[in-house]
Amino acid sequence: MAKILVASMPFAGHVGPMSAIAAELVRRGHEVVGYTGAKYRGRFTGAGASWLPWIKATDYDDADLAATFPEIGDGKGLRGVQANGEYILFGTAAGQVADILAGAPYDLLVTDQVALGGGIAGQALGIPWATVAVTPLSLTSRYLPPLGAPWTPATGPAGRTRDAILRGVTGAVYRRVSDPKINELRASAGLGPVRPGRLFDGIYSTDLVLAQGVPGLEYPRPDLPDHVHFVGRIAATAPLAPEAKLPSWWPELAAAGTVVHVTQGTLDTDPWDLLRPAMAALADREALVVITTGGADPATLGPLPANARAAAFLPYDLMLPLVDVMITNGGWGGVLAGIEAGVPLVVAGDSLDKPEVARRVAWSGAGLDLRTGKPKHELVGRAVDRVLADESFRTRADELGAALRAAGGTNRASDLIEGLLKP
């Protein structure tokens, strides 16, 4: 069996799929080393892997990024995105390279695509390397607008010309801003420069890319490389949570006529952004509103309407089959979990990759994009009413959910990873 390093940025949404892969590789008999921050050590050691800590890389708590990187502030807006890139993505990458090289040898690396140092270390070691896309694919394509453009792919000549021009403009920006930083990291590991003007294409493996999702949730890409595989949702295959851990009000879900779930994930957890507007929008509806705070004390929500229930976390494998509509800020893992369960979505995302997720959900037909991360309660209410009234959203979510399940998930991802190992 092989010695495999699984590298994950210490964010909850990244650790989930990466630790699921680690657990499956351990189950198959491999020696697995999990490389992540101290907060998530137990997610890997609990799966039977050993742990390589962040030593040279600056560790942090994803629930309080500003404590380690005060420049990030609340992490929102253009300033937050730029600070995340400078201090977390690029700022920790050199340390990641040093940590991974110091822990070598390995037979194979599996790294989330945002862990820039993981891919560079894999190339420096000259061993097989797999990338897991924990967010929507950011690979550039001549058929798509550039990453971050606030629209879906064009269908007519004028739109395609617009997208081509903008790709040229952003390519020039990448050559001046991101390429030098990536190339400096690569040079320090003895590697040559990346292909210019392609943003983060150089951080994706040329051996294997495991893309979470399915083609129906991703824009058509006729130029997608053959080594990119859609594998559905990568998630733990552990037994369902015992009922002893469920809240006392849990039986109300099965008895409710309509259940609406509201989540802001685990990163942007200010309840005034989405949770409280959703509570206000649905307070007078004949629906049970189930809110998760992403780890924060539910008391931070203040008094709940009579039809609302709240918890820090709830087991999605048990809850989502009982949900009629999911309101989310667009975390890719949560969106995939909802669609896999056939739940239509209302998405309010405006930070990091979340607007990209929201656009894909609306484009797929499985839900609505509110085009803001801080919607007014009236907007939330109208969106929920529309999704409940139009059966096409549920039908499309069911179709995509079936496709996600058929794609193989964690087992298929692990099969492909093992395929990189020498016989």
Automatic annotation (TrEMBL):
It comes from the Bacteria. Gene3D superfamilies: Glycogen Phosphorylase B. Residues 279-402 form the Erythromycin biosynthesis protein CIII-like C-terminal domain. CDD domains: GT1_Gtf-like. PANTHER family: STEROL 3-BETA-GLUCOSYLTRANSFERASE (PTHR48050), STEROL 3-BETA-GLUCOSYLTRANSFERASE UGT80A2 (PTHR48050:SF13). This is Glycosyltransferase.
